[in-house]
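We emphasize that the prediction below concerns an isolated chain of 235 residues; any contacts that depend on oligomerization or on bound cofactors are therefore not represented. The input was used exactly as deposited, without trimming of termini.
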Amino acid sequence: MIRGIAESRIILRFENVKLVTEQGRGGESIDLEMNLFGGDLTLINLERPRFGSMLADACCGLHPAAEGSIFFLGKDWSALTSDTANALRGRIGRVFTFGNWINRLTLLENILLPQLHHTRRKVAELRDEALHLAGHFELPGLPAGLPDEVMRADLQRAACIRAFLGQPSLILLEEPTFGVYPEILPPLINAIGEACDRGCGVIWLTLEDQVWNDSMLPATHRYRLTARKLMEVAR
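Result of the prediction step, given as a token string:
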């Protein structure tokens, strides 16, 4: 059962939101209306690649709404100071479509960096949690070396470690199985289930038909994000 103990808690809310992909000619606007509750796994099928990162950025308060309001943990991103917004982003884990690695830092430093930046947790404590997650995602240990020295499949597993580290309230997964489907699916589903059971909300964004149609994914909500709006297709 994916819906957990905090099913009545709204993690993320899009209220009469219009997002614009870019200003000026060539820009597209998308209408969004959605609630993400604690315990939800929401699967979103994307019509175009750029929609995923735009929506994920909007969830994090990094892509402002042209109209309407986006609330995270009851707070309107547009009404927050930069310090408060940055602190709240410490409650969000994310797998980025294109990795988002800092190449001059080791992969381990990349994994720990969001928690070191947003929280006051000790490095040793974070390393222990990351090591536990590494085993969960079937890595023999914490990845060493620089990002460009690590195999693509291990980079994707490392991205999942970073996203789940720190028990976030919201987890955003942009193509988390890219290059490691279907072998990563069982540990990823288990990690999502554990997160949802403690009240986290999860959004999984994909362009892949094989992921969208995979019966293993216990999504509580399914949406399609088209050039005009976010539409719920199943619950």
